[in-house]
Structures are given as structure tokens and as C-alpha cells.
Write a structure and sequence with these properties.
The chain is an alpha+beta fold. The protein is built from two helices and eight strands; from the N terminus they run H-E-E-E-E-E-E-E-E-H. The relative contact order is 0.21.
Length: 135
Amino acid sequence: MKLSRPLKLIVGPSEILETYCRPSFCIPEWVIPEMFALLREHRGCGLAAPQVGIDARLFITSWGAIYINPVTTWLSDRRIQSQESCLSFPGIVAEMTRHLEIEICGRKYSGAKAVVLQHELSHLNGFHIAMNGAA
């Protein structure tokens, strides 16, 4: 994985934002702190590796969660509508349908946190809100 410092936010359209990310086994120790710095700077709720140009299954959240190679272990049948924006697509707000609850790596989340996690997982799978609701 070739990386350059400092990390910069990728603004779409960009091929990396539509790429299914590969599993990550070696993330340089400076990457996650720099991602948190960018997340704070841009006042986001979450940030996925492709949003900083990294093809890796990694994302972080504003509440401090770090997921490397996350595995969704359960999704509720109940769905909610959410209006979402994205740091990589400024100015776009999309109406999305998300699961009300999600379990990732054995930990359950609901409501707004569940929405953020699904949004970031979409990034890892090559989808985003500018794709007409495909995320």
C-alpha cells in the first residue's frame, strides 16, 4: 500500500470512491490518527479509508470506533429513512433507507449510529450517496 502524508480528503467523483476495498492487514500506525484529525477538521460523523485515497476496509467514527475489516453479523428487519450528507460529496443530501439496527463484529448499534456505520460500510463496498440512493 503506497501512502503519502498528510492524508487528504478525496472529493468525488473519484474512482477510489467507487472501488470495493480489499481486506486490510497492515495499516501504518500514523494513518488512523491522521484520519481522526481529518474527521474532526471537517466535522464529520465517520470517515472511510477510500475517502482519503486508501484501498482498505477501514473506517472510523466521531465517537471513537475504529473498524478494520468489519463484518456485519446482523441487520434488523426494521428500516428507517435518513437524510445523509457525505464529506466526499459536499452539498449533496440524499434520502436513504437504512436498517434501524446493525451488529458489526458482535456489537449492536441503533438509530443514528447504525446509520453512520451503514454509510461508512457503503464506502468500503464502493457505493456512495451520489449514486442515486445505491449506498
